């Protein structure tokens, strides 16, 4: 697992430290068991602004030709507005913005809600990490086979300078 100081910028976590009780409550509310790598990371740094703010995409998105921009990773909790069960958490995206109910929306993009990153639980096993593009009729693109691979694939957006 990657060191949280490499993944997150210098700002603090979004939520208080993760507890076993809070994890059980959040997973029950979401209806999904979160990947072990996500839980491990939240146990060390519970959500926040990402230092590596882009991930390669296998195909064009409304954002760019070859990547998606990623801003904040949602915390496991319910008090911060962008926690998984917070005011702007998973339920907000499916009810207010009509994002497809495929799993758990875990990261926002700098497009102000016009695309999101989610854990896709539609197939058995570990959820894939997908980009859901509201601008393109909620097109779903797999960007990583699992959460740990997603974290390892995050890069600085400057690597994509000139990517339109």
**Main beta sheet strand tally, sense and closure:** 6 strands, antiparallel
Number of domains: 1
Please count the beta strands (DSSP E, at least 2 residues each): 8
Which class in CATH terms? Alpha Beta
Q: Give the number of helices.
A: 5
CATH superfamily placement: SMI1/KNR4-like
What strand order characterises the main sheet?
Answer: 1-4-5-6-7-8
Query: What general outline do the C-alpha atoms trace?
Result: globular
Query: What kind of oligomer do you see?
Result: single chain
CATH-defined topology? SMI1/KNR4-like
Distance between the termini: 31 Å
- The appropriate CATH architecture is 3-Layer(aba) Sandwich
> Which H/E pattern describes the elements?
HHHEEEEHEEEEH
Characterise the protein shown here.
The protein is an alpha+beta fold and 164 residues long. It has a single domain, classed as SMI1/KNR4-like (3-Layer(aba) Sandwich). 23% of the residues lie in helices and 21% in strands. The chain is built from five helices and eight strands. The strands form two sheets. Strands 1-4-5-6-7-8 form a six-stranded antiparallel sheet. The protein has a two-stranded antiparallel sheet with strand order 2-3. Strand 7 (128-133) and strand 8 (139-144) form a beta hairpin. The longest helix has 11 residues, at 20-30. The radius of gyration is 15 Å and the shape is globular. The N and C termini lie far apart (31 Å). The model has no long low-confidence stretch (mean pLDDT 90).
What is this structure, in a nutshell?
The protein is of the alpha+beta class.
């Amino acid at each position: 697992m990657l060191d949280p100081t490499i993944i997150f910028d210098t700002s603090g976590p979004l939520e208080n430290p993760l507890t076993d009780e809070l994890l059980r409550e959040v997973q029950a509310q979401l209806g999904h068991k979160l990947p072990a790598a996500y839980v491990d990371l939240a146990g060390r740094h519970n959500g926040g602004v990402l230092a590596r703010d882009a991930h390669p995409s296998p195909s064009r998105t409304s954002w760019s030709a070859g990547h998606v921009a990623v801003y904040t990773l949602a915390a496991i909790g319910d008090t911060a507005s962008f926690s998984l069960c917070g005011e702007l958490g998973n339920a907000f995206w499916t009810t207010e913005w009509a994002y497809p109910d495929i799993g758990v929306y875990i990261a926002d993009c700098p497009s102000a809600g016009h695309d999101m990153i989610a854990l896709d639980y539609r197939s058995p096993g570990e959820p894939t990490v997908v980009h859901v593009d509201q601008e393109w009729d909620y097109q779903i693109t797999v960007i990583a086979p699992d959460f740990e691979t997603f974290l390892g694939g995050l890069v600085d957006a400057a690597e994509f300078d000139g990517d339109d």
